[in-house]
């Protein structure tokens, strides 16, 4: 009989064991990525992300299924926003934290949230749902599930569905950036060219490096830029400096870092991850404000990088209607929520039901603001 258990660290299983369950998945689900988060101190009980990876084992101890999971004492770094639910609980005298989250820390990226054979994934979901009832946890949240897993999760009677919107860029067959520009309406094409020209006139050039190609000094610069993005908002960065060095050591082939320089002086960076199907824009930062550099480094350069890598899909991160205006299409995202308190569950069910209509209407209306010509293939 299969048995569910929790792992207090991803390092309780080997990389081969874990990765075999997520064999065709993206970098974020690898043992290398998840262990880099833990071993760097970015993810821990102290940061409000206590590892509690859910696994299903066979009688002989073999790993059948797994789900990257954390016991959370806050809602930061999740990108499926439930602070309103937490506030309502506080006012009603209901404890919302701790809660269980299945997802990837600080990474609003759609993907598999259960690994293993489908029947074993489903068995793990049922087992976790039952286990939750006896634990001092208010709820279970499964964020940014893949299109393959969302249908069977929708059949789980304990889970409430929630939808959101992101903006992703898809290449219908363009060979280079000029093909993309040619597909735009004239006014947008002129505007975007002007943004690129502003960066060029500022004397900015780019170097794109794989993970193993950066020196520690360059990683120091990357982290300075990354941290600046948070400090400018009065926040502390989620990731530690050690995370980047560990990831470069463990997952170098998936990393692409774009360093923007004026002459020999670096001024900004954009950090990407890539797999066989998608480019993921993850982190951005600068040490100097240069007009239009963010758009160029994170969008136009990202499009060109996706073309060079031979991938047709570019996910540049959560939210941002500025992406829509540059040709990133609205995409519906899915998350799932099990809430133990009957009153809270009913209130959330009503909320997500109403929200779903608004989300879909927004996504439909957003299509009208895409910059492409009507006769283009975009």
Give structural notes.
This protein has 378 residues and is α+β, with helices and mostly antiparallel strands. The protein folds into 2 domains: 3-165 and 331-367, 3-Layer(aba) Sandwich (Aminopeptidase), CATH 3.40.630; 174-311, 3-Layer(aba) Sandwich (Aminopeptidase), CATH 3.40.630.30. It has helices at 15-21, 31-39, 83-92, 118-132, 150-153, 177-182, 186-201, 216-231, 241-250, 293-309, 321-324, 342-366; strands spanning 3-7, 49-51, 53-57, 63-67, 69-72, 99-102, 115-116, 139-142, 160-170, 204-210, 255-262, 265-274, 278-286, 313-315, 329-339. The strands form 2 sheets. The chain has an 11-stranded mixed sheet. Strands 1-3-4-7 form a 4-stranded antiparallel sheet. Helix 2 packs antiparallel against helix 9 (241-250) and helix 7 (186-201) packs across helix 10.
* Total DSSP E strands: 15
H-E order: EHHEEEEHEEHEHEHHEHHEEEHEHEH
Rg, please?
21 Å
Shape: globular
Low-confidence stretches: none
Give the helix level as a range of percent.
Answer: 25-40%
> Quick one: CATH superfamily of the largest domain?
Gcn5-related N-acetyltransferase (GNAT)
The separation of the N and C termini measures 51 Å
**Fraction of residues in β-strands:** 15-25%
């Amino acid at each position: 009989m299969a048995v569910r258990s929790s792992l207090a660290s991803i390092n309780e299983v080997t990389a081969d064991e874990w990765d075999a369950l997520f064999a065709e998945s993206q970098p974020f689900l690898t043992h290398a990525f998840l262990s880099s988060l833990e071993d760097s101190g970015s993810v821990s009980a102290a940061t409000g992300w206590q590892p509690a990876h859910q696994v299903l084992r066979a009688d002989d101890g073999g790993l059948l299924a797994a789900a990257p999971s954390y016991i959370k004492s806050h809602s930061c770094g999740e990108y499926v926003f439930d602070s309103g639910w937490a506030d309502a609980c506080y006012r009603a005298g209901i404890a919302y934290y701790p809660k269980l989250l299945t997802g990837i820390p600080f990474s609003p990226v759609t993907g598999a949230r259960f690994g293993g054979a489908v029947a074993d994934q489903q068995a793990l979901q049922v087992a976790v749902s039952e286990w939750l009832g006896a634990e001092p946890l208010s709820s279970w949240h499964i964020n940014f599930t893949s299109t393959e897993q969302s249908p069977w999760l929708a059949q789980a009677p304990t889970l409430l569905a929630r939808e959101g919107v992101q903006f992703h860029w898809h290449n219908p067959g363009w060979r280079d950036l000029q093909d993309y520009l040619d597909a735009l309406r004239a006014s947008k094409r002129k505007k975007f060219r002007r943004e690129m020209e502003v960066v060029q006139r500022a004397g900015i050039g780019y170097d794109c490096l794989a993970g193993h190609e950066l020196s520690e000094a360059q990683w120091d610069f990357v982290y300075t830029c990354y941290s600046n993005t948070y400090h400018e908002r009065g926040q502390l960065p989620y990731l530690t400096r050690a995370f980047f060095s560990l990831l470069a050591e463990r997952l170098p082939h998936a990393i692409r870092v774009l360093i923007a320089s004026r002459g020999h002086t670096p001024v900004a960076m954009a950090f990407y991850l890539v797999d066989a199907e998608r480019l993921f824009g993850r982190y951005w930062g600068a040490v100097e404000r240069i007009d239009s550099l963010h758009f160029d480094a994170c969008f136009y350069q990202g499009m060109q990088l996706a073309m060079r890598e031979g991938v047709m899909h570019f996910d540049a991160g959560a939210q941002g209607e500025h992406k829509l205006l540059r040709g990133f299409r609205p995409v519906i995202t899915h998350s799932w929520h099990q809430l133990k308190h009957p009153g809270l569950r009913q209130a959330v069910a009503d909320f997500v039901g109403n929200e779903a209509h608004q989300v879909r209407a927004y996504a439909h209306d957003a299509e009208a603001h895409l910059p492409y010509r009507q006769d283009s293939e975009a």
